[in-house]
Amino acid sequence: MSSVVSPPSSGRPQPSWPTLSPPERRVLGVLVEKAKTTPDAYPLTLAALTTGCNQKTNRIPLTNYDQDEVEETLDRLRARGLVIQVDSSTGRVPRFKHTLYEKLGVTSPQIAVIAELLLRGPQTEGDLRARANRMLERDPIADLTELQTLLAGLIERGLVVSLSPEGQKRGVVVTHGLYPPDEWERVRLQVTRDFPAEPSPSTPTPTQTAPAYISTAPPHPSVTPVLAGSADPTELAEARREIAVLRAQLETLRAEVARLQAEFAALKTALGA
Length: 273
Known about the structure:
The chain has a domain at 18-105: Winged helix-like DNA-binding domain superfamily/Winged helix DNA-binding domain (Arc Repressor Mutant, subunit A), CATH 1.10.10. The protein has nine helices and six strands; from the N terminus they run H-E-H-H-E-E-H-H-E-H-H-E-E-H-H. The chain has helices at residues 22-37, 46-53, 67-79, 100-105, 108-120, 125-132, 144-156, 184-194, 233-271, and strands at residues 44-45, 83-87, 94-98, 123-124, 160-162, 173-176. The strands form two sheets. Strands 1-3-2 form a three-stranded antiparallel β-sheet. A three-stranded antiparallel β-sheet has the order 4-6-5. Helix 1 (22-37) crosses helix 2 (46-53), helix 1 (22-37) crosses helix 5 (108-120) and helix 5 crosses helix 6. Residues 236-270 form a coiled coil. InterPro entries: DUF480, WH-like_DNA-bd_sf, WH_DNA-bd_sf. Pfam families: DUF480.
């Protein structure tokens, strides 16, 4: 059964939510995150927001936006009423805050979930609960059942979309519903690659007969056998995703090393070394 990649129709009109480009998703996700995790520094300056966008942790994909790109994104979001500028008491350093509580009509736990999906994209319910809870220290999501209840309300409103086959119990993957229409195919391919569906319990696992030269005697009591194929598919998918993240980080580091080497060479030339 193919994954669902568009907001479900409930038979009644759905609110028209804003669709967001990748930079817009990142900026809004960072504004929500920092409002919750570092409230003393919120609203954010342009410099702080740019740093948050390019943060190396809790971000998929990693980015390297400059302040001009972030400022252009802020201008678009302000024009749509999703961000407002708040002048500081000195009047010299403008700061920015989101308006998603009002625009989306969500609660504090709901906005933490949406922000986590904006910052990382599709993820399993278990990962989502753990990651959203870093923004909810005072009132965390207690367990998966509580998260699923919260998600059900967001799915009903089209703000979150389930990407797993109907009836799947473990490793259910969800994402936000704010992608532009032309991005849904990419999202589907990403989920198919990074989060393979768990085998159906009704499908028997084929058995294999061990070749004659392999002993079928029980192992020594002190040896714990590791059976091929016994790994949890959800854990395997998570491991693959983490590997992809590490590879992206490695490429970022390589680019940074190359940039520093070029700067060093230019400096040596300037000094006549």
